[in-house]
C-alpha cells in the first residue's frame, strides 16, 4: 500500500484532476456551460458525429455497425396497440447487429458483452425520420424495414354450430344468401 502523503500519491491525484477537468471542458464545449456543470435536463440537438460521440462518451464505437430500423408488432400477450404504428406512443426502434453472445453456464441465460445492444433495446422513436436521423448521426449503416399493412376492419364471422338450427334457413338446410365460406370473400 502506498503512503497517503507520498510524492507519487499527489502526482496521481493531480493527473486524475487534470483528466476530469479536460473531460469537463470537452463536455462544456459540446453541451454548453449550464448543461455540463449543473446537469439540467434540457434537450440537446447536435449536427456533427464528433459532438455526439463526445457527449455520450462512445468515441465512435458504433461507427460502421449495421442497424435495422423497424416498427415492432404487438406482442401476443397484449390486446392493445401501444408502441406500435396503430397506437399513439413512439413506435420505431433501432436494433443493432449483435457482436458476441454466449450462454451463461450457471443459469442458461444468453449473455453479451455488447453494451450498445442493451441501450438500444430501450430506445424508441416517434417517427421513422427521427430513427434514421439518429442512425446517421451515430454513424450506423442502417436498413429500414417497413411494417406490414394491418387491416382496419373486423373479419366476418362464420356460422357456428348453433346456426344449423337457425330459423332463417331455407328448407334444404342452407341459409338465405348461401354459406359465407362459399361466397369467396364478399364483404
What does this entry show, briefly?
This protein has 187 residues and is of the alpha+beta class.
Protein architecture, described:
- This protein has helices spanning 7-31, 33-38, 49-56, 115-120, 128-138, and strands at 66-70, 92-96, 101-103, 110-112, 124-125, 141-144.
- It has a four-stranded mixed beta sheet.
- β3 and β4 (110-112) form a beta hairpin.
- α1 (7-31) packs across α3.
- The chain is 30% helix and 12% strand.
- Among the domains are: 1-44, no CATH class; 60-144, Double Stranded RNA Binding Domain.
- It is elongated.
- The relative contact order is 0.11.
- The chain has five helices and six strands.
- The N and C termini lie far apart (83 Å).
- With 187 residues, the chain is an alpha+beta fold.
Separation of the first and last Cα atoms: 83 Å
Radius of gyration, in angstroms, nearest whole number: 29 Å
CATH topology of one domain: Double Stranded RNA Binding Domain
Give start-end ranges of low-pLDDT stretches.
34-38, 40-44
Helix content: 25-40%
